[in-house]
Design a protein that fits this description.
This protein folds into 3 domains: 66 residues, no CATH class; 44 residues; 48 residues, no CATH class. It is 41% helix and 6% strand. It has 6 helices and 2 strands. It has a two-stranded antiparallel sheet with strand order 1-2. α5 runs antiparallel to α6.
């Protein structure tokens, strides 16, 4: 989610963010076209980009489940808006084709492995920190990336404010 300055004012968004760490959790939405209640599974890794953090009192349950990271302006080699609209530029078109191929590959991988069991592992954390870290560590368990992901999560947990731990 980009430009998410007012997510703490949206009950629907807050519900998705608070429920999205439970594998079988469902949230309801009313389809206004058909006036029918529908159910959705919000479980997934979420990235939120905003110029300010949500209000502490309005978003307590969400902030407990969040790693905050301050990004600074950089000088990227490529700008994503230009890659998404190559306008005839061959190099940008090649980069866009590579991104599209990767997305297709990830979709096929997900379809093939949709019913694979996810091993339940003890990660040595509890509470909100467990909710925040366990899904990633489970997903990458027994892979070459596991140690690096575990180290990165430990670093992020170390930067959380003491009252959030």
């Amino acid at each position: 989610m980009d430009e998410a300055e007012k997510i703490d004012k949206s009950p629907d968004t807050m519900n998705v963010l608070k429920s999205g760490y439970q594998f079988n959790a469902r949230i309801s939405k009313i389809n206004m076209n058909e006036e029918v209640q529908q159910w959705f599974y919000p479980y997934c890794l979420k990235f939120i980009i905003a110029e300010r953090s949500p209000n502490q009192s309005d978003a307590k349950g969400v902030l407990d489940r969040t790693f905050l990271y301050t990004a600074y302006k950089g000088k990227p080699k490529y700008y994503i808006k230009e890659i998404l609209n190559p306008a005839g530029n061959e190099q940008r078109q090649e980069l866009l084709d590579e991104l599209v191929d990767f997305r297709k590959l990830m979709l096929i991988y997900r379809l093939i492995h949709f019913h694979d069991a996810i091993l339940d592992i003890d990660i040595g954390l509890d509470g909100r920190d467990k909710e925040l870290c366990k899904p990633l560590l489970q997903l990458f368990n027994d892979t070459e990336s596991h140690a690096e992901i575990k180290s990165a999560l430990k670093e992020f947990l170390g930067h959380k404010e003491p009252e959030e731990k």
